[in-house]
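Dear support,

I submitted the protein below through the web form. The confirmation email said the job was done, but the results page showed an empty box. After a refresh the structure appeared. I'm attaching both so you can tell me whether what I see now is the final result or a partial one.
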Amino acid sequence: NNTVYALSAGTGKIAWRRHLGQPVDASTLPCGNIFPVTGITGTPAISADRLYVVAFLSGYRHVLFGLELKKGKLELRRGIDAPGSDPRVHQQRGAMSISRGRVYVPYGGLTGDCGNYKGRVVSVRTHGKPRKLTFTVGVNREGGIWAPSGGAVDRAGNLFVATGNGDSGGFDFGNAVIRLSPKLKQTGFFRARNAGELNLSDTDLGSTGPTLVGPDRLFVIGKDGIGILLSASHLGGVGGELFSQKICSAAYGGMAYREPFIYVPCTDGLVALRLEGNSFSVAWKAGSSAGSPIVSGGAVWTIDQGGLLHAYAPDSGSELASFPIGSVTHFPSPGAGGGRLFAPAENQIVAFAGL
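What the results page shows now:
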């Protein structure tokens, strides 16, 4: 409904709410699976004392809002659609990134891949004149940047994104990892040797966001369940990975990293990989399904498809605790702070204390 809520971490009471405008009637879109209305669909980001969030407004336009954290005062409003794009078929699902005074907003398509959409990243400044920058994935069509965790930003301000399938069986930048400069110029890429086949089978590499895992290393995994380790400074072009290995049936969402482990959310359980130089190995696997994990309070936390919040020992995968939280939506991920853990349970937040 395009409404942002701030909740008291201690009590759960609403501290403030801000309605950003009328959402889009989903029945007027050519495809998609978010009903009855489509509003805020990407994870916001916080920088300094401001929250940045993109709302999909009636009239088919994506708008970036900056809200002051304490009381929700509106401090920034920017149109954030790419010039020449059709906002009706571009969905803003990936999380936003903030770096060096700029907000980076990724776009994919709607479920069903309808319309003439292409994966894009749009960026504006957080202060002063917007100075909009745009990157468009090199495909004829599709190539969405839709992973819920969004892109990864290194210390130099480079942005790394993973794309979904393009509509070609030949060479394009679908099913690729792309490095972008702070000004959104493409400066490197990785593409699997069989990316053309992955295009035709809708087996997106970009079902998870790429994750920086130590100095000059990047990890990504897609719908085929093959984990890929890359050099961040030299992504390797076609087939130039440092190491790859099948680790699960498929992965969606985003990873967590705590040296030396990479925690991967798979449809058949949470997988912990031990990173060793230019390769990795499976350290343990737990559960029957897993949402995007976090590491907090001496445990790895993940929410499975059945609505159970699990806590696992980071080194061994032993289950430390589990809590039923009820129905959950796609790609749920817990959050932690102030001695509490917060779990999204469909239309409510469940908080756990004593962490």
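Response: this is the final, complete result; the empty box was a page-load delay. The mean pLDDT is 97.
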